[in-house]
Write a structure and sequence with these properties.
There is one protein chain. This protein has 5 helices and 12 strands. With 248 residues, it is α+β, with helices and mostly antiparallel strands. A 7-stranded mixed β-sheet has the order 1-2-6-7-5-4-3. Strands 8-10-11 form a 3-stranded antiparallel β-sheet. Helix 3 (144-163) packs antiparallel against helix 5. It is globular, with a radius of gyration of 20 Å. It starts with 7 loop residues before the first strand and ends with a helix.
């Protein structure tokens, strides 16, 4: 009977390109070790979702979320992890980049490591926010007076990331989790494809704030609230304009 630790956890990772990522946490499973050792399946993305043409989204797209024995930690596993040759989506590079820039970031909890199976990347170790609900669910079930508080909190989060060289582009209402008891908001779903690093150009800032405004406008539209008529490329001005709009 083997007394090998499952999974095996180490710090430091040499990827297929020969790059050594010294701060990266690695949660490693070998053949036959996944079943029964991932934790409890608590969520999955792209389940029974139709695309814009009305076709069902590829069932292998998206992720499974397993809550581990530690209630504050989850494993985010790609549904296509068993596909031949699959080795993640640059998660090792992404998480090391986030670690490198995390010193001055107080409002966001990043993925904490990569999950591997037979030395191939299959997902991320992430914080698990128990008792939280998506911004979408929170907004449609809360009074309008609280919306401004949520929107300003999100603006503060993405500004802090931006100020530290992290541009989070995947702004939609299911990527923000709200603790309704404390009105605390957490950002989730970090993927390299939907992020930029160290680009503080005016163009990127405008695109980021436009995506933020569009997210709010879509939520407001569902609630019968007029679209935000805000034109700005500055975080502070956006904050001020939000206050003016909601006072009206």
């Amino acid at each position: 009977m083997s007394d090998e630790q499952i999974p095996k956890i180490t710090i430091g990772y040499k990827n297929k390109k020969g790059q050594y990522l010294k701060d990266l946490r690695v949660i490693a499973f070998q053949e036959g070790q996944l079943f029964g050792n991932l934790g409890t399946l608590v969520a999955q993305s792209n389940q029974n979702i139709l695309d814009q043409r009305g076709y069902e989204v590829d069932p292998d797209a998206g992720v499974y979320i397993y809550q581990t024995k530690n209630p504050k930690i989850a494993y985010r596993i790609y549904k296509c992890f068993a596909d031949y040759g699959f080795n993640g989506y640059g998660d090792d590079i992404l998480i090391q980049k986030l670690i490198d820039r995390s010193k001055n970031i107080k409002l966001t909890k990043f993925p904490t490591g990569i999950i591997t199976h037979n030395d191939r990347i299959i997902g991320q170790e992430i914080p698990f926010f128990e008792g939280h609900y998506t911004l979408f669910d929170t907004i449609i079930n809360s009074h309008k007076e609280r919306h401004l508080k949520y929107y300003k909190s999100i603006l503060k989060i993405i500004k802090e990331l931006y100020d530290n060289g992290i541009i989070y582009c995947d702004l939609h209402s299911n990527n923000f989790m709200v603790n309704p008891q404390k009105d605390k908001i957490e950002i989730i779903d970090f993927e390299l494809l939907n992020m930029k690093f160290d680009d503080k150009s005016k163009k990127t800032r405008i695109e980021l704030l436009s995506a933020y405004k569009n997210m709010i406008s879509r939520l407001n539209n569902m609630l019968g609230i007029d679209e935000l008529k805000i034109k700005t490329d500055d975080f502070e001005e956006m904050n001020e304009e939000l206050s003016k709009v909601y006072k009206k």
